[in-house]
């Protein structure tokens, strides 16, 4: 490049006269090539390559997920290895011999036992009601109604468990609220469940007996089935009421705590009724093709 000494304009090295002012620049020396041009180009190229590498870069998969899974598996394995079967069996035996005895068990003893009892009882509940419904059916029509009844109770299997679960949850909530009302202290919900299940742990045996009876086809066992179902439910409710009372004076009278307990349990039973009532009526009408709504209308009930 040449720079005109007259006007300062820059032009190519082979130009003899300034294109701006016409000055003779034949004797003007050529400016040396800027040494920064090549590095600049290299820098731009390097930046472009770095940008491309950044765009194509994929972060390595972090091992956090795998690590957390391994930790969970390790904890489960450790829990299985450290599972004390003798302590669990001792907890059951003590609860059968002396239900009100003070004993320390794992937090999950009560809730796991209760859930298993609920699952078995809900199945036995449906089987018992089904047997009671088929008890007075004429033998010639038994096949037709048995198929219909099996279809009906199969469609309501979840609702059966829902009835048992909400009622059991109502007992636990009622016992917690009533105990809080009487003593106004901090009570662990897990300890409360353990205590209720321990008091009613005879139900673990009764539920198994009930399921075995329901498994048979003896029509004469209907009264026994319904009686066991009623006794199991009442025993669990009595255990919840028993936890309201402790061997120490409370801030309020225990009698009023038990009244609160009964009111809350009744409220949960009523909630359960209204939740499953519509589903049961709908299934009866669709399965048996019978309109039962007129029988549920209070205006049509006469004494």
Structure explained in plain terms:
The structure is a single chain. The protein is mainly α and 303 residues long. It contains eleven helices and two strands; from the N terminus they run ββααααααααααα. The longest helix is centred in the C-terminal third of the chain and has 35 residues, at 254-288. The N and C termini lie far apart (119 Å).
Compact summary:
The protein is an all-alpha fold.
In total, how many beta strands?
Answer: 2
| Element order: H for helix, E for strand | EEHHHHHHHHHHH
Main sheet specs: 2 strands, antiparallel
Overall geometry comes to: elongated
Rounded average pLDDT: 78
Entry keywords:
mainly alpha; 303 residues; 68% helix; two-stranded antiparallel ribbon
Task: Describe the SSE topology.
Blueprint: E1 2-3, E2 10-11, H1 37-56, H2 64-81, H3 85-97, H4 108-134, H5 139-155, H6 157-183, H7 189-199, H8 202-215, H9 222-242, H10 254-288, H11 293-296
Antiparallel strand pairs: 1-2
Helix pairs in contact: 4-5, 4-6, 4-7, 4-8, 4-9, 5-10, 6-9, 6-10, 7-9, 8-9
């Amino acid at each position: 490049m040449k720079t005109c000494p007259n006007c300062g304009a820059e032009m190519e090295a082979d130009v003899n006269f300034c294109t701006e002012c016409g000055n003779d620049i034949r004797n003007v020396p050529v400016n040396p090539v800027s040494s920064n041009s090549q590095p600049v180009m290299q820098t731009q190229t390097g930046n472009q390559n770095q940008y491309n590498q950044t765009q194509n870069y994929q972060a390595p998969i972090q091992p956090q997920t795998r690590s957390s899974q391994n930790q969970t598996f390790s904890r489960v394995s450790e829990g299985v290895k450290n599972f004390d079967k003798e302590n669990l069996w001792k907890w059951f035996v003590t609860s059968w011999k002396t239900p009100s005895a003070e004993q320390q068990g794992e937090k999950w003893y009560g809730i796991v036992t209760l859930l298993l009892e609920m699952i078995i009882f809900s199945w036995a509940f449906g089987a018992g009601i089904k047997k009671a419904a088929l008890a007075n059916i004429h033998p010639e029509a038994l096949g037709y109604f048995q198929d219909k009844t099996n279809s009906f109770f199969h469609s309501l299997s979840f609702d059966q468990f829902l009835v048992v679960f909400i009622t059991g949850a109502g007992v636990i909530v009622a016992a917690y609220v009533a105990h809080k009302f009487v003593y106004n202290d901090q009570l662990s919900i897990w300890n409360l469940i353990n205590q209720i299940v321990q008091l009613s742990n005879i139900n673990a045996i009764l539920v198994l007996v009930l399921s075995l009876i329901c498994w048979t086809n003896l029509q004469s066992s209907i009264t026994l089935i319904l009686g066991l179902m009623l006794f199991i439910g009442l025993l669990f409710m009595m255990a919840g009421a028993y936890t309201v009372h402790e061997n120490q004076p409370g801030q309020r009278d225990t009698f009023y705590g038990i009244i609160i307990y009964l009111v809350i349990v009744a409220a949960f039973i009523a909630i359960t009724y209204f939740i499953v009532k519509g589903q049961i009526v709908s299934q009866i009408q669709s399965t048996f093709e019978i309109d039962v709504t007129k029988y549920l209308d209070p205006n049509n009930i006469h004494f």
